[in-house]
Design a protein that fits this description.
Blueprint: H1 6-15, H2 17-31, E1 38-42, H3 48-55, E2 59-64, H4 67-76, E3 82-85, E4 100-106, H5 115-125, E5 126-137, H6 139-146, E6 154-159, E7 167-172, H7 175-184, E8 187-193, H8 201-204, H9 206-212, E9 218-225
Parallel strand pairs: 1-2, 1-4, 2-3, 4-5
Antiparallel strand pairs: 5-9, 6-7, 8-9
Length: 228
C-alpha cells in the first residue's frame, strides 16, 4: 500500500510527531537493551527503527513489502542490515527457526487480514527467551475517528494522513480481540503500554501534544512466547 507514496511517507515519518516523538520512543523503550542481539524488523519501512536499533548495537535483519521503502532503509542503515522485500502475509521461509532475539513490528499488524498467521511465524523465528515488541493503532482512537460501535471488527479504508491522499486498508478491532489473537498465536503479554508523547513534543507540536495527552493514538505491547 505504501509503494505509491513511499518517498513522501519516509520524509513524513522521520519528523512526524506521531512517529518520531510518540511511537518510536515507545517501541524502542519496550525493546530495551539490544546490544549484541539479533533483531528482526518486520515491516521495516524506511528504516527509522532499524537504524536506531543498529546504532544501539543490534544486528538487524528485516523486511518490507515496498521495494522503495526497503531501498531507503538499506541506505539509512549503510547497507549493514539484511533487509529484504517481503510481504508479511507470506511465510518468512528465508528466516531460520529461533534466529532472532527480538522482533519489532511497528504500526503494521493492523494491515494484515490473517494476523494470527503472522504472529505464529514471528514466534517461530524467536530464539528462546526472545520477545516480540509491536505497536498498532489504539482501538479507542479508531472509535473516536470512525464512530459506530467500539466493538466492531472490520477492515476500513481511509487515508493515512488527513492532509494527503495516502489510501490504506486496515482493521479496526476492540482491545479484547487484539489480545485474544496474541494468545491464539501462542504469546503472553509481558507489558502493555499506552504511550504518552515525549516532552519535546509540547514545544514543537503543542496541539498534538495536548491531544495525545487526552486520547491515545497507538498502543504498544511486549509479548513473550507462552510456555509449552
Amino acid at each position: 500500500m505504501y509503494e505509491r507514496f513511499a518517498h513522501e511517507y519516509a520524509a513524513h515519518a522521520e519528523v512526524s510527531p506521531y512517529n518520531a516523538l510518540y511511537d518510536r520512543p515507545a517501541v524502542l523503550g519496550l525493546a530495551g537493551d539490544v546490544r549484541g542481539r539479533t533483531v528482526f524488523d518486520a515491516a521495516c519501512g524506511p528504516g527509522l527503527y532499524a537504524a536506531e536499533l543498529q546504532e544501539r548495537g543490534a544486528r538487524v535483519i528485516g523486511c518490507d513489502a515496498s521495494p522503495t521503502l526497503v531501498a531507503l532503509a538499506r541506505e539509512r542503515t549503510g547497507g549493514r542490515a539484511d533487509l529484504r522485500v517481503h510481504d508479511l502475509s507470506e511465510p518468512l521461509a528465508w528466516v531460520p527457526d529461533g534466529s532472532a532475539d527480538l522482533v519489532v513490528l511497528a504500526l503494521a499488524i493492523h494491515y494484515l487480514d490473517d494476523r494470527v498467521a503472522l504472529l505464529e511465524e514471528l514466534r517461530r523465528i524467536l530464539a528462546p527467551g526472545g520477545a516480540l515488541v509491536l505497536s498498532t493503532e489504539h482501538p479507542m482512537a479508531k472509535w473516536v475517528r470512525l464512530g459506530g460501535s467500539y466493538f466492531t471488527a472490520e477492515p476500513v479504508e481511509e487515508s493515512l494522513s488527513e492532509k494527503r491522499d495516502w489510501p490504506v486498508r486496515s482493521w479496526r478491532m476492540p482491545l479484547t480481540a487484539i489480545c485474544a489473537e496474541f494468545r491464539q498465536a501462542g504469546f503472553l503479554i509481558d507489558e502493555l503500554l499506552e504511550p504518552l508523547p515525549v516532552p519535546e513534543m509540547e514545544a514543537l507540536y503543542p496541539d498534538d501534544h495536548e491531544w495525545l495527552n487526552q486520547v491515545p493514538a497507538f498502543v504498544a505491547f511486549r509479548l513473550v512466547p507462552r510456555p509449552a
